[in-house]
């Protein structure tokens, strides 16, 4: 019963329930997922435990239990540090964790985490982009105009952030 398939099923169900706005139920499902992953004898248990902790942290953040979410995410990192092979392949930063950090008065830590996440994403994007495609034409992200002055809004449809 305690298998990888059970964990993946519970992870998916927890996410679906959370997306429906049923946060307390999503937390319960994520807690059950973590228990199943911890009891698993499957070779992929460390990956499952990390995924279960991330799911639980996300559910707790959505349920506005920020201190608990921070604790769960921190435990996830500690578990990952115990296995360097897994840690090297696992993204440790998480936007839900950043929200929990901000809400618990740890904004500098959240800024550091999100900056690192952005840096890694940009490096990965540069690594996988076609070599013949220049950066300035590769990705345009729409930007909202700053300020309340309507003259800034006139050309807003042509404004973009170029990475």
SSE blueprint:
Blueprint: H1 4-19, H2 23-39, H3 45-62, H4 66-81, H5 84-89, H6 95-103, H7 107-128, H8 135-138, E1 140-142, E2 160-162
Antiparallel strand pairs: 1-2
Summarize this structure briefly.
The protein is 66% helix and 4% strand.
Task: Describe what you observe in this structure.
- The chain is mostly helical and 163 residues long.
- It has 2 domains: 4-128, Tetratricopeptide repeat domain (Serine Threonine Protein Phosphatase 5, Tetratricopeptide repeat), CATH 1.25.40; 130-163, no CATH class.
- It contains 8 helices and 2 strands; from the N terminus they run H-H-H-H-H-H-H-H-E-E.
- Strands 1-2 form a two-stranded antiparallel sheet.
- Helix 1 (4-19) packs antiparallel against helix 2 and helix 3 (45-62) runs antiparallel to helix 4.
- The chain is globular.
- The model is unreliable at 149-163 (pLDDT under 50).
